[in-house]
Amino acid sequence: MNVNFLDLKKQYGKIKSELMRELKTVCDSQHYVLGPNVKALEEEIAAYCGAKYAVGVASGTDAILLALVAAGVGPGDKVVTTPYTFFATAGSISLLGAVPVFVDIEPDTFNIDPNEFERLLKRSSKGIKAVIPVHLYGQCAEMDTIRSLAHRYSLSVIEDAAQSIGARYKSRGAGSLGDFGCFSFYPTKNLGCFGDGGMITTNNRRRADKLRMLRGHGSRRRYYYDIVGTNSRLDEIQAAVLRVKLKYLDGWAEGRRKNAAKYTELFGKAGIGSSVTVPEIRKENLSVYNQFVVLAKKRDALRKYLSANGVGSEIYYPMSLHQQKCFKDLGYKKGDFPVSEDAAKKSLALPIYPELKEAELRYVVSTIAAFYS
Ligand SMILES: Cc1ncc(COP(=O)(O)O)c(C=O)c1O
Is there an atom of ligand 1 within 6 Å of 164 CB? Predict the structure, then answer.
């Protein structure tokens, strides 16, 4: 049997005619940038996440970058985040001339450890302007503590919800929990477009206005520039695709949760708990399982074995950000964030997309069990 790590063709096949109809409408209109689909999608995403405003941008990376600019982060400011995330989270901070300050993750959720965050702030909060909690793999970070610390130390909270559209924390949607919520519509995300795309949510009208200006070179009126911005717009083709897919998103997330529950049951029965740890979802969280990531002993050998037996997998992420060459000047060293470093050594993402059949899940788990026996 072959089980691909991700098979977007299966999803595409089911909604192809609907997508083609909407794409044709956009092409017939010849209106490609900031048109009716972007406007409607912004309203739909804001409502979906429980935020007041949403601003479409060119990618999840730009969402973080522009949220940082709108939060007033600039050269020399410090921004706290986790070293165990996709590069864009910390890269955007650096690109602005600001300084990423890393805080280790919790071993069970892979999200920023609020206790470590508090310890850092107590040691020294000087120069820290914002915090970016990342809702990794589809599960929200521990937002109550993060928010109350941010409030106490006057920090902006920028949620990196790139992997977590539709996730809930204490019944509230990812993207509505901080000052800004940043989403990615990269094709592998739960809500993916036909290329790159992103969105920023906020509950504050002034911030939403600023973001709208920033994505259009800082102008409110054509050829008059009040601030310096950039070109970071979501286009009509992507918005039309996303509007079709948004209708199915909750059903797809439900399919992912069903698969995760099945994996958990099958791993439990396989009796390999000393070699493979399945992900934990906290009771206050509803995960959308953008990824199902296990911690596995002999991870690299297991991955090779899975590949040889037709099972696709991925490593998110093989090296913690504090150990990356480009961040050498930050002065971190091996051992500074042991939980992140351990996750980088052991994490393995297994196929979790909603179209998977139970027989395929069984095959993945039995192949892993065979490796350890
Ligand atoms: C956690 C996280 N942050 C940011 C991004 C950046 O999003 P994009 O690839 O749309 O720029 C991604 C997606 O790859 C991500 O997974």
Answer: no
At 80-123, the pLDDT tens digits run: 999 999 999 999 999 999 999 999 999 999 999 999 999 999 99
Q: Cα(359) to centroid of ligand 1, in Å?
A: 31
The confidence band for 133, taking pLDDT boundaries of 50, 70 and 90, is: very high
Q: Which atom of ligand 1 is nearest to the CA of 163?
A: 16
**Three-state SS across the chain?**
CCECCCCHHHHHHHHHHHHHHHHHHHHHHCCCECCHHHHHHHHHHHHHHCCCEEEEECCHHHHHHHHHHHCCCCCCCEEEECCCCCHHHHHHHHHCCCEEEECCECCCCCCECHHHHHHHHHHCCCCEEEEECECHHHCCCCHHHHHHHHHHCCCEEEEECCCCCCCEECCEECCCCCCEEEEECCCCCCCCCCCCCEEEEECCHHHHHHHHHHCECCEEECCEECCCCCECCCEHHHHHHHHHHHCCHHHHHHHHHHHHHHHHHHHHHHCCCCCEECCCCCCCEECCCCCEEEEECCHHHHHHHHHHCCECCECCCCCCHHHCHHHHHHCCCCCCCHHHHHHHHHEEEECCCCCCCHHHHHHHHHHHHHHHC
Given the CA of residue 61, which atom of ligand 1 is nearest to it? 11
pLDDT (average), residues 68-74: 98
Q: Domain ranges in the chain?
A: 8-246, 249-372
- The CATH class for the domain spanning 8-246 reads alpha beta
Cα 61 to ligand 1 centre (Å) = 6
pTM: 0.98
Q: What's the CATH superfamily of 249-372?
A: Aspartate Aminotransferase, domain 1 (3.90.1150.10)
Average pLDDT (170-189) is: 98
CA of 118 to the centre of ligand 1 (A): 26
Any atom of ligand 1 within 6 Å of the Cβ of 198:
yes
Tell me whether domains 8-246 and 249-372 share a fold.
no
Q: Which tens digit of pLDDT belongs to each residue from 22-61?
A: 999 999 999 999 999 999 999 999 999 999 999 999 999 9
